[in-house]
């Protein structure tokens, strides 16, 4: 069929495969939720069909309105939001709930793609750089105020997308160093960390002596960086002590193990690891998992859905799922890089990076490699807001890719 030329069959096929496998696993945890997820999937497909029949320019022209709408929905949580599991980041309409941050990600991706594709875009221009950071930062600050730390981490995906457009890699290095110093300082004496920082700074000065000599601004920068990192190492335990108890314990679990918090923040992780480990190579079989059927893991249908896969489908099933995600994300990056339109490319990079962060953090959570921060597994965790939002981004990107492939320009 001629009209189907340009539709990426691999990408759409993987999307449907992930959604169907998700419904099967959610049904194993709770049949009623499985039926609701099937309904959400049907709605997502219907919305996807509408997107495919829309004009491509619609997304570019309406990006500012969609972005502002997403930010306003986030702000509206403060007076109108419903608190669920200690966080006021949901709207409730009768028996349904909606998490606006999922849709704010779509607006931010579209707005960023629209701005980057403007003719005068140049990240070396400070005004342009500040505007880009504001586009990402405004919804990010609102999310931080909610507070929703997990969703805030996802906004780092937009910084990853900007790296493709010329953002300096120094920013990633700075963020990594600050995060590493903070986390290491929780387990290591800050004095030792400060000594290590001073030694590294001394080596850098020695190797770049002629470059540094007489450069007052560079000297000031080195001194301030050393001072800030040293201060951060000493203040890490204080910052940790001021966190809410459940957030503090989620970090401490990484150092002390889940058994030390088996009755609180380590409970989910303990049984999640038990479920994944008990699956063996081939798994126990569909609806045969003792942990899954016993409902030992809270939120097993949402953030911890992967442990159901591990228990019932084993190492083989888990590996196939990870492979599907890897191919799907890699496919989006590949297609994005080959777009003729800058708008299409940037949106594709934003979408792929959002998926990558969600996927990496969620799997890290259920295996104890990352603190529990409430990040759903895309297309797989139960929830209408999450599935619909990811589906919308999926169909927008494949619609843009379809138009790109059929463009004569």
Q: Could you please describe the fold and organization of this structure?
A:
The chain has a 3-stranded antiparallel beta sheet with strand order 1-2-3. The protein is globular, with a radius of gyration of 23 Å. The chain contains 19 helices and 3 strands. The protein has helices at residues 9-29, 31-52, 57-61, 63-75, 77-80, 100-116, 126-145, 149-154, 156-164, 170-187, 190-207, 209-212, 216-242, 245-256, 267-278, 290-293, 306-337, 342-366, 384-405; strands at 82-84, 87-93, 96-98. Helix 6 (100-116) runs antiparallel to helix 7. With 409 residues, the chain is mainly α. The mean pLDDT is 87.
Q: What is Rg?
A: 23 Å
Largest sheet: 3 strands, antiparallel
What is the spatial order of strands in the main beta sheet?
Answer: 1-2-3
**How many helices does DSSP assign?**
19
Helical coverage, percent range: over 70%
Structural class: mainly alpha
The total count of strands amounts to 3
Mean pLDDT: 87
- Categorize the overall geometry: globular
Q: What is the beta-strand fraction? A: under 5%
Low-confidence stretches: none
Q: What's the N-to-C terminus distance?
A: 22 Å
Order of helices and strands: HHHHHEEEHHHHHHHHHHHHHH
Question: How do the helices and strands line up, and which of them pair or pack?
Answer:
Blueprint: H1 9-29, H2 31-52, H3 57-61, H4 63-75, H5 77-80, E1 82-84, E2 87-93, E3 96-98, H6 100-116, H7 126-145, H8 149-154, H9 156-164, H10 170-187, H11 190-207, H12 209-212, H13 216-242, H14 245-256, H15 267-278, H16 290-293, H17 306-337, H18 342-366, H19 384-405
Antiparallel strand pairs: 1-2, 2-3
